[in-house]
C-alpha cells in the first residue's frame, strides 16, 4: 500500500517537470530570455522568505511558500495568460480548475485535497497568506520590466494608470511593499518606461 502511494507521488513529480517548459511573457532580469514558470515560482518563494516581515498581517510562511510553488502548476494544462489580458484571464478560470483537478489528482487523495485547497485559497485572495503571496506574485514582473527597459509594458502598450490599477492588489498583502512599488512605477513613468496614456 505504501509503495502505491510512493508511485502516485512519483507520477506527480514527473508530471510537474513540464512546468519548466511553460514560458511567461516577462523576461529574466536584464535579459532577452523569457522566464519559465519553474523559475518564476522559485523566485517568488525566495522573495516571500525575504519580504515576509512586510506582510500586513502575520502569515504562516510555509503556507505562503506552498501557494507560490503550487499556484502556476495548472498552467501545464491551461497555459500562461498575460496578466493584462483580463478577458482571457476570465475565460481561463474553468481550464485552470480542470487542470488543478487532473494534476493534483495524480497525488494520493490526502495530498491532492490539500494542494487543491491551497491553490483555491491563493486564487480566492482572501486570507492573509493568499494576499501576501499575491503581492509577491505581482511584484516580480514589475521588477523584471524595469530591469528590461519597460519589458512587457512597452511590448504590449500597457500604460502607467493600468499598471497602478491592476497592481494595487500588492497593497492588500503589503502596504509597505506597495508604497515602495508605487515609487518605482512613478520613476518608471518619469524615465519613459511607462506611458502616460490613459491618464486624465
What does this structure look like?
There is one protein chain. The longest helix has 20 residues, at 128-147. Helix 2 packs across helix 8 and helix 3 crosses helix 8. Strand 1 (23-27) and strand 2 (34-36) form a beta hairpin. It is globular and about 60 Å long. Strands 1-2 form a two-stranded antiparallel ribbon. It is built from twelve helices and two strands, in the order αββααααααααααα. It is mainly alpha-helical and 200 residues long.
Count the strands? 2
Radius of gyration: 18 Å
What is the rounded distance between the termini?
65 Å
Q: Provide the succession of SSEs.
A: HEEHHHHHHHHHHH
Roughly what fraction of the amino acids lie in strands?
under 5%
**DSSP summary: helix tally:** 12
Low-confidence stretches: none
- Average pLDDT works out at 93
Structural class: mainly alpha
Oligomer: single chain
Brief characterization of the structure:
By secondary structure, the protein is mostly helical. It has helices spanning 2-15, 37-51, 61-70, 75-78, 86-91, 93-104, 109-124, 128-147, 151-155, 160-167, 170-173, 175-190, and strands at residues 23-27, 34-36. A hairpin with a 6-residue loop joins strand 1 and strand 2 (34-36).
Secondary structure blueprint with pairings:
Blueprint: H1 2-15, E1 23-27, E2 34-36, H2 37-51, H3 61-70, H4 75-78, H5 86-91, H6 93-104, H7 109-124, H8 128-147, H9 151-155, H10 160-167, H11 170-173, H12 175-190
Antiparallel strand pairs: 1-2
Helix pairs in contact: 2-3, 2-8, 3-7, 3-8, 7-8, 8-12
Amino acid at each position: 500500500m505504501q509503495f502505491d502511494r510512493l508511485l502516485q507521488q512519483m507520477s506527480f513529480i514527473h508530471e510537474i517537470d513540464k512546468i519548466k517548459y511553460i514560458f511567461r511573457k516577462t523576461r529574466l532580469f536584464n535579459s532577452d530570455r523569457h522566464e519559465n514558470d519553474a523559475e518564476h515560482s522559485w523566485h517568488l518563494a525566495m522573495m516571500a522568505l525575504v519580504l515576509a516581515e512586510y506582510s500586513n498581517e502575520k502569515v504562516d510562511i510555509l503556507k505562503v511558500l506552498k501557494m507560490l510553488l503550487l499556484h502556476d502548476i495548472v498552467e501545464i494544462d491551461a497555459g500562461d495568460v498575460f496578466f493584462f489580458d483580463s478577458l482571457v484571464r476570465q475565460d481561463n478560470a474553468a481550464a485552470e480548475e480542470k487542470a488543478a483537478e487532473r494534476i493534483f489528482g495524480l497525488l494520493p487523495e490526502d495530498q491532492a485535497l490539500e494542494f487543491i485547497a491551497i491553490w483555491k485559497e491563493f486564487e480566492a485572495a482572501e486570507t492573509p497568506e493568499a494576499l501576501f503571496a499575491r503581492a509577491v506574485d505581482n511584484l516580480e514582473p514589475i521588477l523584471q520590466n524595469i530591469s528590461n527597459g519597460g519589458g512587457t509594458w512597452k511590448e504590449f502598450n500597457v500604460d502607467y494608470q493600468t499598471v497602478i490599477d491592476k497592481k494595487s492588489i500588492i497593497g492588500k498583502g503589503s502596504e509597505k511593499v506597495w508604497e515602495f512599488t508605487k515609487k518605482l512605477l512613478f520613476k518608471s513613468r518619469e524615465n519613459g518606461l511607462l506611458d502616460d496614456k490613459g491618464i486624465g
